[in-house]
Amino acid sequence: MESGSLSPALTATRRLLPWPKRLDIALLSFLALLIAYCDRVNMSVAAPLIMKEYGWDTAQMGWVLSGFFMGYTFFMIPAGMLVDRWGPKRMFAVSVAWWSVFTALTPFPKSLGGMTLVRVLMGSGESGTFPSMNSILVRWFPRQEYSRATGFCWSGGYAGPIIAFPLASVILHAWGWRAIFFLFAILGVIWLPFWLFGIRDDPERSSGVTAEELSYIKASRPEIPQRSVTPWGRILRLPALWAVMILHFSSNWFSYVMISWLPTYLMDERHFSLSSMALGSSLPFLSALLGTNLFGVLIDRMSLKHERTRVRKLFLFPYALAAATLLLLPWAASPAMTVTLLCVAMALMTGATPVYASSSLELAPRYTGSVVALQACFANLAGVLAPVVIGYVVKVSSWYLAFVLTASVSLVGILTFVFFGKAERQID
Q1: Predicted pLDDT at 14
Q2: What's the pLDDT tens digit per position in 110-122?
Q3: Which residues contact 127 (CB under 8 A, 6 or more apart)?
């Protein structure tokens, strides 16, 4: 892990770009998550063609979609521990390189088991994403910017589908579904040199940080110990952590239903054309991108004058409205109304995103890599379960029941955080 005292030479370095160095960290983290989600949702666009070519039904395709989340979830905690031990810069680079390779390998297996295995391995690469991201953010950002910084970076997950759905649809139409995976893998290769040569783990060792910015960052930043031993027993006994994990799980269920099945829903149930599907699938995620950043800024501003925990609980009310909006989808009378309701639901759902995104920085900033890994591991069980469960529910019942189930999971997450959630440091 890169650490050490600030060198006077570094503070004198002139900043060439017109924004603070910490925004480089945020922008590259945002782009990394954008690429990660592009490489997840490309399978959703390809799914109808893959099912047709190989004769798989929605239940079988659900296993391929869940394969990614199996690897992603089960390798999350080891990845978080490695981040805390070796530093976020190194682990982030390894993660991006690993998942890009397996994105390119996705089209080669021709069996259900083979394709699922490749997606498992790809998911294991992406498991280092959030631990690396939050671990470097807690080093580079002061506490008063936690919600907007994490909200912006994590909103890359909503930006990915905005690009991926139409781009993958164009590629599919021009060169077939296999080309989607080959071309998307290149995105990670483009990102890597910017991260490797432009970023350091700590602002103290970065040549692009001015003395003024460093002083601003350190004013409310916790000290990050080198190679610290994670106090797992104390962490696992925190009710506030379990509350945020359940909230995160519920939000992920909502998101992954959309990421995994929205193109199929629009084409099969709503009879959208390929081009209409691409637009209809992208616009809800654009709404989510805008919503996340708006809510992140509002949470930080309100937290300057009001109690931080109370502010975060207040912003779960839009999430509750999102669950209610989802239940209106079966009564949408036109494609425009369907897309409008999806946009409203996704925008309101992101009231919860800055809440759980910043929680590891708030609850245990010295162990944020490990804590967010545990949080994301639990939350991403939704990614393992939702594609398969929704696939079976649609097969044996209807899309409406799938939406009722999703709204119910959301309500459980909201109520758990309202009763047990906190936004104060629990572990020093």
Answers
A1: 62
A2: 899 999 999 999 9
A3: 71, 72, 73, 74, 75, 76, 78, 79, 95, 373
